[in-house]
Write a structure and sequence with these properties.
The complex is a heterotetramer of chains A (about 375), B (about 280), C (about 290) and D (about 280). In chain A, about 40% of the residues lie in helices and about 15% in strands. By secondary structure, chain A is α/β, with parallel strands linked by helices. Chain A folds into two domains: about 5-125 and about 230-370, Periplasmic binding protein-like II (D-Maltodextrin-Binding Protein, domain 2, 3-Layer(aba) Sandwich), CATH 3.40.190.10; about 130-225, D-Maltodextrin-Binding Protein, domain 2. In chain A, the strands form two sheets. Chain A has a seven-stranded mixed β-sheet with strand order 2-1-3-10-4-11-12, sandwiched between helices. In chain A, strands 7-6-8-5-9 form a five-stranded mixed β-sheet. In chain A, helix 13 crosses helix 14 (about 285-290). Mean pLDDT of chain A is about 85; it is low at about 15-25. In chain B, about 35% of the residues lie in helices and about 20% in strands. Chain B is built from seven helices and ten strands. A six-stranded mixed β-sheet of chain B has the order 6-7-8-3-9-10, with helices on both faces. In chain B, helix 2 (about 105-120) runs parallel beside helix 4 (about 150-165) and helix 4 runs parallel beside helix 5 (about 180-200). By secondary structure, chain C is mainly alpha-helical. Chain C folds into two domains: about 10-55, no CATH class; about 80-285, Orthogonal Bundle (MetI-like fold), CATH 1.10.3720. Chain D has twelve helices and no strands. Chain D is globular, with a radius of gyration of 24 Å. Classes of the chains: A alpha/beta (about 375), B alpha/beta (about 280), C mainly alpha (about 290), D mainly alpha (about 280).
Chain lengths: ~375, ~280, ~290, ~280
C-alpha cells in the first residue's frame, strides 16, 4: 500500500500546483487599454442577407475609419448563428452577427461566457422566415394549406437558427407535426432537395432565393403569412464592452454607415456583388433578389423587405421578449426572461442622438426586376 | 468385427514416384518405391526426417497424386497411370501426427462421426456402436468429455477407435505417438497391440522410434534419405502376441543393432544436407 | 479464466469473490483513479477556470442536468426523449449488426473455404476496404432514399467488412488435418463445411463480432452526426449547435455506457456459445 | 476433389521470388481477379447511366456517378493544385495525430504493463472513456481547442491512442512470465529486464497496434474534417474535399475523393507496416 500513499501525495501536489495558477477571471479576454490598436475577431454571416451589414463593413472596409490606427479585423464566416455563438463563448470571436434565436441563446450562457445584445440590425418577415416544399408537392391555395400538408412529412431546418424558431412557432400555431424534423445545415438542405430527399424546409435568404432560382424547391410562404417577424442582431462579449468602449462605439458607427449604405436602393447591385465575393455557389442575381427583389403575396412576399432599426427599438425589444418566452417553452434556453443587463440599448441610442437620427435608419423596399442590371 | 472375414488390407506399391514442383525447382520426394504389405500385417516404416515417408502415406490415403507407378489395395488400383490420385475413403483412415479429433465434438460424437457421415448408420445406431467400442477399448466414462478435457494419451486411443469404427482395410498411422512421453507410449503400444489382436487390421505405421518399430512391427522397412526408397526390409521374427518383456530379449537387441546401423547411415546423409524435419 | 466448480452454488461463489475484492487494494486504487479524473475535471473547469477549460461544461452542471426531473434543456434520465435517442441508436445498431453478421459470416466462410469464390470476390473486397467507411457518407445520402437508410447502411458496411474478414481468417486458421481427417471418415464436402469449417472458425468469428460491434458504434455516431435524426450521435451534434453543452456531455457518456454494454453482451454471448472452447482453454489446449 | 488445402512438402526454402512473381501474374486467381474487377466496373457504368440505354433510372445505382464521369473528373482534378493540397493537409493531420498518439500511447501502455499500482489507478479511468467512439469527441474538441487544426488532431489522437495502448498492454501481458523469472534468476536488474526483455517482447504488438491505429486515423480524419466543415470550419483536407463536392453537387468528385482516401490510407498503412517491420526483424514473414 505504500505505493498508493505515494500517489496520493502526488495527486495533492498536482492540485496545489494547479491552484497556484490563481483564480484570475481566466475566462476574460484581454483587449488592451482604450486607444491601443486592437486585433478583433468578428463572426459574421455572408450567407444570411438580414445581417449583410457585416458583409458591407468587410467589403468596404468601413471599420478602418472608426477603429484605432493599426487595428486589424479578421472576418470569420459562420454557416449559421449558433456556430458563431460557440466561438464567442470560447473567446475565439468577440463580435457576432446573429439571427434572433442564437442572439438570445448567447446571452443565457453566463457560466460559459458573458455576451450581450447591443444592436438590432434588421427586422423583417421573409429574410429568415421562408418556408419551402418539394417541387412535385401539390398546388396550394395559401400558406396555411401548404403548412398543413407538411404534417407527417420530412422537414429540415438548421437547429438553433432563427428559421428553426420560426418553423417550430408555426408548427405549434398550426398544430403541424412532421414525422422527422431534421437538423441540417443550409448546404445539406440544398443538396437534400437536389437529391429529392426532403418534403419541406425552413431557411433564410439568400439560400432561399437560390432554391427558387435553381428550381430546387418551391417557396410557399414566409413570416408575413403567419405574422411571425424575424430579426438580426449584433452580440458582443461583455469583457470587450467593459474594456474597450472606444472600439464598441467605433464598430457601431461603422455599422450605422453600413446600414445607411444598404438602405440606399442604388447600392443594391453593388451589395450583391460584394456578397458574391464573400460566398461560393451563388449567382449575383440570386443575391440581389434575396434582399432587394420582389416576391408575390402568396409566396409570402411584401413591399418592405427589411427595416434597419440599428437601435434596439420597441418592436425589436418586443420581438426579443416574445422569442425568449417561446425558446423557454421549447426548452432551448433555461430561463423564461433574459437577465436584465443582457440587452444594452443605450450604446446605439447615444450614437443616433449624436448623429441626430431616429430609428429605423433605413428601409429596404422590394425593387422591380428591371432594377437589376 | 470378427477375424474370420476374408483377410483385407493387402497393399502393393509398384515403382511409385512423387515429385514436388514448388515454383519450378522440382524435388523428388519418392523415388521408384516398390513395397508389398500383406493383409493383416503391421508394417513399420522408418527413415531419416524429411525423407518423404509422409508423402508415401499421403499418396496411399489419396491426399495427393503420384507421378509414376501405381498403388493397389487388395488387388484394386487406388492410383496409377490413368488415375494419378487415389480417392480418399474410409477404407484407408489416417491417424495424424499431432491428432485430429474435432475439439468441438465430444469423444463419442467424434467416434460416431464416420458412420453417420457415410450414411451407413443412423445417428442413434452410430452412437450405440461408438459407446460399445469405447467400453471395449477401456474408454467408458469419457464419452461426453471434449477432447480438450482428456489426456493426450487418451485422445490418441479415441482417435484409433474413431478410425476402427469404419472397419477400414488399412490403418495409416503417421508418427501418432511422436509427441508423447515414454510412459504414455508404452501404454499405447500395448493398447494398439490389443486392438490388433482382436481385429487383425493391416497397419501402415511411420515412425522415428526404432524400438517402437521393432516391438510392434512384423516387418521394419528402413527407407533411404530423400528421395525415399526402401533400403532394407527386416523381418521381426519375434512371435506375436508380444509383451514388454520382449524389449530385453537377445533377439530384439540383435535386430535393433542391425536396424540402427542401416538407419544411421541414411540419417547422416540427410543431416549433412540440412533437411528440416519432414 | 477460472471455471466455476459446478458443485458450489453460484451465489456462494459470487459472494466470496465480492468479499475478496473488497479486501484487495485494487478496488480502492480504481476508485482513486476515478476520483482523480473527476477531480481534475471539477478543479480545472469550475474552481480554477483555466483558459481553455472554462468553456467546457462543469461536472456539477452535467450531473444536475442528467439527474434532474425537469432538466433545463429537456434531456435527462427522467425525460422520454433521452430514451428515444438511446433506442433509435440501439435499433440502428441492432439492424446493422444483425445484417452484417448474417451476411458477413457466410461470405467470410465462403471466402475462406472456396478458392473460386475468393478469387472472384476478394479483390473487390480488398479494393473497397481501405476506403474509410465515413467517406461513403455523401454517396450514401445521395444513393439511398430516406434519412434512416444511409445511417444504417454506413453502420452495416463497417461491421460487414470486420465480420467477413475475421470469419475468413477463422477458416484459414483451421488445421488442415481436421479437413483431411473428416474426408478420411467419408464426409462429403458439404458435411465438412458444416461440421468442421464452421465450428472450427467459431473462435475467430466471435472475435470478429466483438470488433464489428465496436466498429458499428464508431460509424453510427459519425453517420448520425452528419445526416441523422434522433440518436445519440445526432444528440451530440445538435446540443453542440444549440449550445446546450451539459446535454452534449450527457450524450457522450450515455454513448459510452450503451456502447460498452452492447459489446459486453456480444462477448458474453460469444463465450456462452463456445463451451468447448472455454473448457479447452482451461485445459491449456490439445496435447 | 481435395480442397485447396495442400500438404506439399516444405517449399519455402526452394522458392525464388522471380519465378514466384511470374507464376503469380498469369495464375488463375489473377485472371479471375481481373475479370471480377472489369465486370464490377461495367455493372457500375451501366447502372449509373441507366437512362441512356434503358430509358429509366435504376433505383440505387442510378443516383451514383458513373466510372467514366469519375475518371473525367479525376483527370481535371489532377491538374488542380488544391486537390493535392487537400491530400497534403489530410496526410499532415494523420501523421501529426498518429505520431503524437504513438509517442504518448506506447510509453503509457508500457507504464501500465510494468507498474501495477499505476495501472490499478489509471486503467479503470482509461477504460471508462474508451467506449466513447473518437468522433463523439469532435464537438467537445471544437469547443476546447483554440484552432480547428488542433481540434481535428485531438480527435485523431484519441482514435489512435486507445488502439495503441490496448495493443501494447496486450503484448506486455502476453510475455511469457517464465522469461522474466529466468532473467531475474540470472540477476537482471529491473532496468535491463525492461530494455532487454519487455520492450523487445512487446515490439510485435506495438507493430500491430501501429498498423491498426493508422487505419483508424484515416477513418477519423475524414469524418472529423466532414463534421467540422459542417459546423463552420474551413480547414481543407480530403474529408473536406468530399464534403464540399457533396455540397457543391459535383458528385463525381465525391467518388474521386473516396478513392483518393482509399489509396492514401492503403499507402500509409504499407509505410507503417514496413517501418514498423524494422521493429521486429526476427519476425520477417
Amino acid at each position: 500500500m505504500t505505493k498508493a500513499k505515494g500517489f496520493m501525495a502526488l495527486a495533492c501536489l498536482l492540485g496545489a500546483a494547479l491552484s497556484a495558477f490563481g483564480p484570475a477571471r481566466a475566462s476574460d479576454v484581454d483587449y488592451g487599454k482604450p486607444g491601443d490598436p486592437i486585433h478583433l475577431q468578428v463572426g459574421y454571416q455572408p450567407y444570411y442577407s438580414e445581417a449583410w451589414s457585416g458583409a458591407v463593413i468587410d467589403g468596404l472596409a468601413l471599420w478602418k475609419k472608426y477603429l484605432p490606427a493599426g487595428s486589424t479585423v479578421d472576418f470569420n464566416i459562420g454557416l449559421q448563428g449558433s456556430i458563431i455563438v460557440n466561438a464567442m463563448l470560447a473567446g475565439k470571436e468577440s463580435i457576432g452577427y446573429l439571427g434572433d434565436m442564437p442572439a438570445i441563446v448567447a446571452t443565457t450562457k453566463r457560466q460559459v461566457g458573458d455576451l450581450r445584445i447591443v444592436a438590432a440590425i434588421g427586422l423583417g418577415y421573409d429574410e429568415c422566415n421562408v418556408i419551402f416544399v418539394r417541387n412535385d408537392a401539390p398546388r396550394f391555395v395559401n400558406a396555411d394549406e401548404a403548412v398543413a400538408w407538411l404534417d407527417g412529412k420530412t422537414v429540415a431546418s438548421p437547429k438553433g437558427s432563427c428559421a428553426d424558431r420560426f418553423a417550430r412557432a408555426v408548427f405549434e400555431k398550426k398544430h403541424v407535426n412532421p414525422t422527422s424534423y431534421l437538423n441540417q445545415s443550409i448546404e445539406v438542405i440544398t443538396s437534400g432537395f437536389r437529391a429529392g430527399k426532403l418534403d419541406g424546409a425552413v431557411l433564410w435568404e439568400p439560400t432561399a432565393t437560390r432554391l427558387v432560382e435553381g428550381s430546387l424547391a418551391r417557396r410557399i410562404g414566409a413570416g408575413n403569412n403567419f405574422d411571425e417577424r424575424d430579426g438580426a442582431f449584433i452580440d458582443m462579449r461583455a469583457d470587450l464592452i467593459q474594456q474597450r468602449p472606444d472600439v464598441v462605439k467605433g464598430w457601431l458607427e461603422a455599422e450605422l454607415e453600413a446600414e445607411q449604405y444598404l438602405a440606399d436602393p442604388k447600392n443594391a447591385v453593388s451589395v450583391a456583388e460584394l456578397a458574391q465575393a464573400q460566398t461560393t455557389g451563388f449567382q449575383k442575381h440570386e443575391l440581389w433578389r434575396a434582399l432587394f427583389g420582389e416576391y408575390s403575396a402568396e409566396e409570402g412576399g411584401a413591399p418592405v423587405r427589411l427595416t434597419l432599426p440599428f437601435e434596439l427599438t420597441a418592436p425589436a425589444l418586443e420581438h426579443i421578449k416574445k422569442a425568449t418566452a417561446f425558446l423557454f417553452s421549447i426548452k432551448s434556453i433555461d430561463t423564461p426572461e433574459l437577465p436584465s443587463d443582457a440587452v444594452l440599448p443605450e450604446l446605439t441610442t447615444d450614437i443616433l442622438k449624436e448623429h441626430g437620427l431616429t430609428a429605423p435608419v433605413g428601409e429596404i423596399k422590394a425593387q422591380p426586376e428591371s432594377a437589376f442590371r | 468385427m470378427n477375424a474370420s472375414q476374408v483377410p483385407r488390407g493387402a497393399l502393393s506399391l509398384q515403382d511409385v514416384v512423387k515429385i514436388y514442383d514448388p515454383d519450378g525447382s522440382n524435388v523428388m520426394a519418392v523415388d521408384h518405391c516398390s513395397l508389398k504389405v500383406e493383409a493383416g500385417e503391421i508394417c513399420m516404416i522408418v527413415g531419416p526426417s524429411g525423407c518423404g515417408k509422409t508423402s508415401l502415406l499421403n499418396a496411399i490415403a489419396g491426399f495427393h497424386d503420384i507421378d509414376r507407378g501405381s498403388i493397389r489395395l487388395d488387388g484394386e488400383v487406388l492410383c496409377g497411370p490413368d488415375r494419378r490420385q487415389a480417392p480418399i475413403g474410409p477404407d484407408r483412415v489416417v491417424v495424424f501426427q499431432n491428432g485430429a479429433l474435432f475439439p468441438w465434438k465430444t469423444n463419442l460424437e467424434n467416434i460416431a462421426f464416420g458412420p453417420i457421415a457415410q450414411g451407413r448408420l443412423s445417428r442413434a445406431e452410430a452412437r450405440d456402436k461408438a459407446r460399445a467400442m469405447m467400453a471395449e477399448a477401456g474408454l467408458s466414462g469419457y464419452e461426453n468429455d471434449y477432447p480438450g478435457q482428456v489426456s493426450s494419451g487418451l485422445r490418441r486411443r479415441v482417435e484409433i477407435v474413431r478410425a476402427l469404427i469404419n472397419d477400414p482395410a488399412v490403418l495409416l498411422l503417421d508418427e501418432p505417438y511422436r509427441a508423447l512421453d515414454a510412459l504414455t507410449k508404452s501404454v499405447l503400444h500395448e493398447s494398439l497391440l490389443e486392438i490388433y489382436y482382436k481385429t487383425r487390421k493391416t497397419i501402415f505405421f511411420i515412425t522415428h522410434d526404432l524400438e517402437e518399430a521393432i516391438f510392434l512391427g512384423h516387418r521394419v522397412v528402413v527407407m533411404t534419405s530423400r528421395p525415399c526408397r526402401p533400403k532394407r526390409i527386416f523381418d521381426v521374427d519375434i512371435p506375436h502376441p508380444r509383451d514388454y518383456g520382449v524389449l530385453t530379449s537377445k533377439r530384439f537387441r540383435e535386430i535393433a543393432a542391425e536396424v540402427a546401423e542401416a538407419v544411421n547411415e541414411e540419417a547422416l546423409k540427410s543431416f549433412t544436407r540440412g533437411e528440416r524435419e519432414g | 479464466m477460472s471455471v466455476a466448480q459446478p458443485d458450489r452454488p453460484l451465489l456462494a461463489e459470487t459472494l466470496t469473490q465480492w468479499a475478496e475484492a473488497f479486501r484487495r487494494p485494487t478496488l480502492y486504487l480504481a476508485v482513486l483513479g476515478y476520483a482523480l479524473m473527476l477531480g481534475f475535471w471539477y478543479l480545472t473547469v469550475q474552481v480554477l477556470k483555466l483558459p481553455r477549460f472554462s468553456q467546457m461544461p462543469a461536472l456539477t452542471d452535467v450531473m444536475r442536468e442528467w439527474t434532474s426531473r425537469d432538466p433545463a434543456y429537456g434531456v435527462s434520465i427522467f425525460t422520454p426523449i433521452y430514451y428515444q435517442h438511446i433506442l433509435v441508436s440501439l435499433r440502428r445498431i441492432a439492424i446493422a449488426f444483425a445484417l452484417a453478421t448474417s451476411l458477413g459470416v457466410p461470405v467470410g466462410l465462403l471466402l475462406g473455404w472456396s478458392k473460386a469464390f475468393r478469387d472472384y470476390v476478394f479483390p473487390l473486397f480488398e479494393m473497397l476496404r481501405p476506403i474509410p467507411i465515413l467517406a461513403w457518407v455523401p454517396l450514401a445520402i445521395i444513393m439511398l432514399p430516406g434519412d434512416e437508410l444511409p445511417v444504417v447502411y454506413l453502420t452495416f458496411l463497417a461491421s460487414f467488412f470486420a465480420t467477413a474478414l475475421n470469419t475468413m481468417l477463422g477458416v484459414k486458421s483451421i488445421d488442415p488435418a481436421y479437413v483431411l481427417a473428416a474426408q478420411c471418415l467419408g464426409a462429403s464436402r458439404w458435411r465438412i463445411f458444416a461440421e468442421v469449417i464452421v465450428p472450427g472458425a467459431l473462435p475467430f468469428i466471435f472475435t470478429g463480432l466483438q470488433i464489428s460491434i465496436g466498429v458499428a458504434w464508431f460509424s453510427l455516431v459519425a453517420a448520425e452526426m452528419i445526416s441523422g435524426q434522433f440518436g445519440l450521435g445526432y444528440l451530440i451534434n445538435t446540443s453542440y449547435t444549440t449550445v446546450e453543452y451539459p446535454t452534449l456531455v450527457i450524450a457522450m457518456f450515455t454513448l459510452g455506457i450503451v456502447g460498452y454494454s452492447t459489446s459486453a453482451l456480444v462477448r458474453r454471448v460469444g463465450e456462452g456459445l463456445m463451451t468447448w472452447r472455454t473448457r479447452q482453454l482451461a485445459m491449456d489446449g490439445r496435447g | 476433389m481435395a480442397s485447396d488445402v495442400s500438404l506439399a512438402v516444405d517449399e519455402r526454402e526452394r522458392r525464388s521470388s522471380g519465378a514466384r512473381l511470374r507464376r503469380k501474374l498469369n495464375s488463375v486467381s489473377t485472371r479471375r481477379a481481373a475479370v471480377s474487377i472489369v465486370v464490377a466496373l461495367l455493372l457500375w457504368q451501366l447502372g449509373a447511366t441507366g437512362p441512356s440505354w434503358l430509358g429509366m433510372r435504376i433505383p440505387i445505382l442510378g443516383a451514383s456517378p458513373s466510372p467514366v464521369a469519375v475518371a473525367q473528373a479525376w483527370s481535371h482534378l489532377v491538374a488542380d493544385p488544391n486537390y493535392w493540397r487537400s491530400w497534403y493537409l489530410s496526410l499532415l493531420r494523420v501523421l501529426f495525430g498518429f505520431a503524437s498518439a504513438t509517442l504518448v500511447g506506447v510509453p503509457f501502455g508500457l507504464l501500465l504493463a510494468v507498474h501495477p499500482t499505476f495501472r490499478a489507478i489509471s486503467y479503470p479511468a482509461f477504460e471508462l472513456l474508451r467506449p466513447i467512439p473518437p468522433l463523439a469527441w469532435v464537438p467537445a474538441s471544437i469547443i476546447f481547442w483554440p484552432t480547428q487544426e488542433l481540434s481535428i488532431a485531438f480527435v485523431i489522437f484519441i482514435g489512435a491512442f486507445y488502439t495503441i495502448v490496448i495493443n501494447v498492454l496486450g503484448g506486455a501481458e502476453a510475455i511469457d512470465v517464465r522469461l522474466i523469472q529466468a532473467a531475474r534468476s540470472m540477476g537482471a536488474s529491473r532496468g535491463n529486464i525492461f530494455w532487454r526483455l519487455i520492450l523487445p517482447g512487446v515490439a510485435p504488438s506495438i507493430r500491430v497496434g501501429m498498423e491498426v491505429a493508422i487505419g483508424i486515423t484515416w477513418e477519423v480524419v475524414v469524418a472529423a474534417e466532414m463534421i467540422s466543415s459542417g459546423s463552420g470550419g474551413a480547414g481543407g483536407g480530403l474529408g473536406f474535399f468530399i464534403w464540399n463536392s457533396y455540397i457543391g453537387g459535383s458528385y463525381p468528385n465525391i467518388v474521386v475523393g473516396m478513392i483518393s482516401i482509399g489509396i492514401a490510407g492503403y499507402a500509409s498503412s504499407t509505410v507503417v507496416r514496413v517501418a514498423a517491420g524494422r521493429l521486429t526483424p526476427w519476425q520477417r514473414a
